[in-house]
Amino acid sequence: KGNGNIPIRLIWPKAKAKPDDMKEGLPLIVFFHYGGFVLGTHKDPLANVMADDVGALVASVGYRLAPEHKFPAGVDDCW
Q1: Reported pTM
Q2: Which of 24, 26, 54, 55 is the most buried (most CB within 10 A)?
């Protein structure tokens, strides 16, 4: 198992207010970047597009990548 340090980036849709100004909650998308657990990053620009197009808060989650971390390390981090 890993050390528990999994990066998460929160992306707010541009058209929505920040939490201090909100009266209602936003839908949440939990996004794990593509790349077969080898490529990519939790800073993927697709998460920004999803937040704006859907109007939802996106939690873009990182995970340990191969080959430094053997399978199923990345999958385990997505639980």
Answers
A1: 0.70
A2: 26
